Amino acid sequence: MRLIVLMAAVLLLGGCSLFETDNSEPPAKLVEFKPSLRVAQPWSYDTGVGVGDDWIRLYPWREGDAIYTVDSEGHVLALDLRKGKVLWERYLKMPVTGGINGGEGVLVFGTGKGEVVALSQKDGSLLWKTPVSSEVLAVSRVLLGTVVARTNDGNLHGIDIGTGSVRWQAGRRTPPLSLRGASVPLITHGGVIAGFDNGKLVALSLADGRVAWEATIAVPRGRSELERMVDIDGQFVEQDGVVYVATYQGRLAAVGLADGRIIWSRKMSSFMGLTVDGGQVYATDAWSTVWAVDRKSGATLWKQPALRLRTATAPAVVGRWVVVGDHEGYLHWMDKFDGHFVARVRSDPDGIRVPPLEAEGFLLSLGNGGELNVWKVLD
Predict the structure, then answer these.
(1) Which of 64, 126, 76 has its CA nearest to residue 100?
(2) How confident is the model at residue 23, as a pLDDT?
(3) Closest among 118, 116, 179 to 150, alpha carbons compared
(4) Of 340, 342, 336, whose CA–CA distance to 315 is shortest?
(5) Sequence-distant (≥ 6) Cβ neighbours of residue 240 within 8 angstroms
């Protein structure tokens, strides 16, 4: 039977034991600094119960001037980006565990009952529900008439967006122990890229699920199952024919999209993920250190260690700044050229698990408790 670890990172990094006194390292305290950036909050909205008690990631999705959210009980919202006005909402009473995503006029999410659900982007009406092999942890955006769902048993399901029929299924054997969660499959250039719990990044045909290539980003090492965990759980990015990806207890790597060749790699442990902007890759490691590395070589440009063990999210880039959220609901704004702090705001006291989202000069933050906050830098 597969065992899932919710916060194995905390156990490993803090050094606590189930059989000894808890001597785990506490999260770093907030550092003091003089803010040099003014940030305003045009609006906020309570989108529901958020993620509930489960270690899941429910991402907001944006298209044009509309933002879409779903909470862990199936409350789906469409909101106007600029004013926060509710465009429509639906109460579906479903145990949502993955999503939300969309495209081609359709919204998609997955449930703990092993269903992929599609709604009309226009009004939220139910289009179809499709059963898959197990609990759905992530769903891709919709592209070329297809959505790809990643399930807890390590499978991918390619689903026809028009009918809800499963076109193909593919996957990898899951190790006995893994982190809770999964990275979002990435549809690009007529294929789909997916990360697995065995440290492998795989490219498949979007049409039929056939494997085009497989890249080993990290190899399990150590005697215990905890030591051998190398999940790809954080967000990865494709840009200019290169996929940038990181694994837990493994490596940060640049992989050629055409053939899966590893262009460069460096040691790093991450379960939150990364983003790319210009010539830089920005990543959050398992200790919540934020890194900027050169996109062409992987060389370190700067690092910001002051958020140690604050469960910082993957970074987002808005203008000149890199932003991450943390377990207490703070958003930390850093200068993207050297990493020094320029601003800090409190967004959701229940914490933030999904990365902030840049949208038309705004920054969106969806907290664990369901608070959607919109921020804008003041000139």
Answers:
(1) 76
(2) 63
(3) 116
(4) 336
(5) none
Going by their DSSP bridges, the two strands 66-70 and 61-63 should be labelled as antiparallel
Domain presence at residue 328: yes
The pTM of the whole model exceeds 0.90: yes
Q: What residues does 169 pair with on adjacent strands?
A: 157
* 305 part of a folded domain: yes
In contact, 112 and 100? CB cutoff 8 Å: no
Q: Which domain CATH number covers 357?
A: 2.130.10.10
Q: How many CA atoms lie within 13 A of 13 on its CB side?
A: 21
Of the CA atoms within 13 Å of residue 191, those in its CB half-sphere come to: 20
Alpha-helix residue ranges (DSSP H) falling in the chain: 8-14
Residue 78 C-alpha from the chain's centroid = 20
Written as six digits, the tokens of 354 are: 């999904």
The three-state secondary structure class of 377 is: strand
Domain that holds residue 46: 28-56+270-378
The residues, any chain, with a CB within 8 Å of residue 348's CB and separated by 6 or more, are 50, 329, 365, 366, 367, 368, 369, 370, 371, 373
CB atoms within 10 A of CB 54: 15
- Cβ atoms of 108 and 132 within 8 Å: the answer is no
Enclosing H/E stretch for 374: strand 371-377
Return the C-alpha torsion angle 272, 278, 279, 280, nearest 10. Answer: -20
Residue 138 is assigned to a structural domain of this protein: no
Report the number of distinct structural domains present in the chain: 1
Structure tokens at 56: 């899941």
Q: How far is CA 141 from the centre of its chain?
A: 13
Mean pLDDT of residues grouped by 10 in the chain (379 residues)?
A: 46 40 82 97 97 92 98 98 97 97 98 99 98 97 98 97 97 78 94 96 97 94 84 96 97 98 98 96 98 99 99 97 98 98 96 96 97 94
84-119: b or e for each residue (b if 16 or more CB lie within 10 Å)?
Answer: eeeebebebebbbbbbbbbbeebbbbbbbebbbbbb
Query: Is residue 140 a part of any domain in this protein?
Result: no
